[in-house]
Amino acid sequence: MTNIKEPIAVCPSCEKVIWSGARVWRKGDELYCHSKCLVASFSKEKAVAQ
Ligand SMILES: [Zn+2]
């Protein structure tokens, strides 16, 4: 059996490669590698907006 993993995205927060089959957190079109990265993206947006 082959289990080929392919990079599907790069986490916009930490720039880590996200592989197919990995757990991801989605926000709109963006995929994050970890819930912390997703949360970090929200706090960044807040910082920009204020
Ligand atoms: Zn990340």
Which features characterize this protein?
single chain, 50 residues, alpha+beta, two-stranded antiparallel ribbon, 1 helix, 4 strands, binds zinc ion
Helices and strands in order, then pairings?
Blueprint: E1 7-10, E2 17-19, E3 25-27, E4 30-32, H1 35-49
The structure holds zinc ion (ZN).
Structure commentary:
With 50 residues, this protein is α+β, with helices and mostly antiparallel strands. It has one domain. The chain is 30% helix and 26% strand. It is built from one helix and four strands. The strands form two sheets. Strands 1-2 form a two-stranded antiparallel sheet. A two-stranded antiparallel ribbon has the order 3-4. β1 and β2 form a beta hairpin. The longest helix has 15 residues. The termini are far apart.
Helicity, as a percent range: 25-40%
List segments where confidence is low: pLDDT < 50 over at least 5 consecutive residues. none
Number of strands: 4
Computed CA radius of gyration, to the nearest angstrom:
13 Å
Structural class from helices and strands? alpha+beta
Residue share in β-strands: 25-35%
N-to-C terminal Cα separation, in Å? 52 Å
Number of domains: 1
Question: Which cofactors or ions or other ligands sit in this model?
Answer: zinc ion
Note the total helix count. Answer: 1
- Strand sequence of the main sheet, in spatial order? 1-2
| Overall mean pLDDT | 89
